[in-house]
Specification:
By secondary structure, this protein is an all-alpha fold. It has one domain (11-95): PHAX RNA-binding domain (Arc Repressor Mutant, subunit A, Orthogonal Bundle), CATH 1.10.10.1440. 62% of the residues lie in helices and 0% in strands. It is built from five helices and no strands. It has helices spanning 11-25, 30-43, 45-60, 75-85, 89-95. The radius of gyration is 13 Å and the shape is globular.
Length: 102
């Protein structure tokens, strides 16, 4: 799979990248898989894979708690949190048009 630093337009590359990310995040539910697809489409393969790498590093370091501090986020939750908090507001709005940035 060739990686690029721009929006993903090639359908096969998009599918491969989404499958790779969803597999590593153990995301099996359609809403999460759909959201990952949107993230890859908007920020591109390289950035999405960088967020995956970061999420895995957070997991290896002991994980991340939810905002209320009462439970641990899943690795998928860490991935989504990193994307939302480390991406500019315009891009976040393109990915999550109906949500506010945390």
């Amino acid at each position: 799979m060739q990686l690029m630093d721009t929006k993903v337009t090639d359908e096969e590359e998009l599918e491969e990248t989404c499958f790779f990310i969803t597999s590593h995040l153990n995301e099996t539910k359609k809403p999460a898989r759909t959201q990952i697809r949107k993230i890859v489409q908007v920020i591109g393969t390289d950035k999405a894979l960088q967020f995956l790498k970061q999420a895995r590093e957070v997991e290896r370091a002991g994980g991340m708690l939810t905002m209320n501090g009462k439970k641990r986020r899943t690795i998928g939750g860490v991935f989504f949190y990193l994307v939302r908090t480390q991406t500019d507001e315009v891009t976040v709005t393109r990915i999550w048009p109906d949500r506010n940035k945390p």
